Amino acid sequence: MLKTALPKIITETVPGPKAAAVINRRDEAIPAAIRCGYPVVIDHAEGAIIEDVDGNRFLDFIGGVGVLNIGFSHPEVIAAVKAQADKYFHGMFNVVTHEGYVALAEKLNSLVPVKGDKKRTFFANSGAEADENAVKIAKAFTKRPNIIVFSGAFHGRTLLTMSMTAKKAYAKGMGPFPDGVYRAEFPYLYRRPAGMPIEAAIDYYIEKLHETFNNCSDPQHVAAIVVEPLQGEGGFIPAPIEWVKALRKICDQYGILLIADEVQSGFCRTGRMFATEYWKDAGVQPDIITMAKSIAAGVPLSAISARDEIMQSVPGGVIGGTYCGNPLACAAALKTIEIMQRDNLAQRSAEIGKKVISRYNEWMQKYDVIGDIRGLGGMIGIEFVKDKESKQPDSTLVNNLIKEAAQHGLLIENAGIHGNVIRFLAPLVITDEQLDAGLDIFEAAIKKCTNYQEDSSAANIGA
């Protein structure tokens, strides 16, 4: 069975001949800007394993960049989509009501940890659309023009979300950007000012937010502050809870809405259904949550949830769209959430995370190139540096690790503002045997790419 198989390369080279032919066709037909550095042409996939057109099997630690929390081609989701397809593919929600949309909204309203007793949810097609709609809602409710985002943030590739996204490699040559988007410094604790104690760092980063108020926009003109509970593209950096609590206090003081971008962190990825459940445990809740990625196991769908008074402030016609809440996607999402709850995938995510971090910590003691390990549940970043003392980012090493791992059947991906972090987003249905095999391949790549030599004298101690 493919879903329990281990990675295995059977061709002399990777990509194999069939995959290489398709990749060559891709190079001729697709814009080069849609880059892919992986030697994989998928034929079919189950769980956390991809089999390519040459019969090579790859273990996926990327999970469609957070889309495949319940794995590839889950049979129950396939059945749900097929059953819906037998009825109808599409129903424009402004024209006909379909129950799947309503049922999914009701389900999310019962789950999302946003402020308020009565909640409302509507749907879009992508994470970027969800974030853009959240900003529209915040502006409608507050009647204010500006928003604040953070260093390291990634929110999408539409014109507005490109301006919200920090890394301008995602927006090269696309300006001018919309006015009214201002940036504060995110609490990247590993790279806080040298010598600063962690307990002092929270105040430091909160002061950076006040500087944004002073230099860019008075808080009375700010509609929302948009933050990822755990930054994705920025380097898998969790927002410290004490900082989040201070953020919530500032928002309440000035009448600013707090938007949590859970596009990548939602749906069991962090050990909870939503990462903001950790906030709720600490007495903090966002006003709006955006979701996408694993919501529908790979069928395009995103969602925006907020309390009743916020949602009902939006003028008619401002939100919605032709494909938003497509019936096939809603059917997939309802079944996906059912599986996540029934199979305790949030708990499984926490178990996976403990195992990965334990192994990473062992590596950190052995290899001077590992600077930091961080994350929540099964959403983990490992940061590579040239040495621990300087903390100088080593993106070259990370690129080499990605290439080397792929040659042995493991797919890993970078993240971080310097491209020196490897993200862990393996499907939560990965088996323990597969996880161990993947970690072994990863460590072997570290050894090869750093020319690491085992200390035989140390290895023989106690022998």
Automatic annotation (TrEMBL):
Its cofactor is pyridoxal 5'-phosphate. It comes from the Bacteria. Keywords: Aminotransferase, Pyridoxal phosphate, Transferase. It is an enzyme of class 2 (transferase). Pfam families: Aminotran_3 (PF00202). InterPro entries: Aminotrans_3 (IPR005814), Aminotrans_3_PPA_site (IPR049704), Class-III_PLP-dep_AT (IPR050103), PyrdxlP-dep_Trfase (IPR015424), PyrdxlP-dep_Trfase_major (IPR015421), PyrdxlP-dep_Trfase_small (IPR015422). It catalyses: 4-aminobutanoate + 2-oxoglutarate = succinate semialdehyde + L-glutamate; (S)-3-amino-2-methylpropanoate + 2-oxoglutarate = 2-methyl-3-oxopropanoate + L-glutamate. Pathway: Amino-acid degradation; 4-aminobutanoate degradation. Its EC number is 2.6.1.19, 2.6.1.22. GO terms for molecular function: (S)-3-amino-2-methylpropionate transaminase activity; 4-aminobutyrate:2-oxoglutarate transaminase activity; identical protein binding; pyridoxal phosphate binding. CDD domains: OAT_like (cd00610). Belongs to the class-III pyridoxal-phosphate-dependent aminotransferase family. This is (S)-3-amino-2-methylpropionate transaminase. It comes from Pectinatus brassicae.
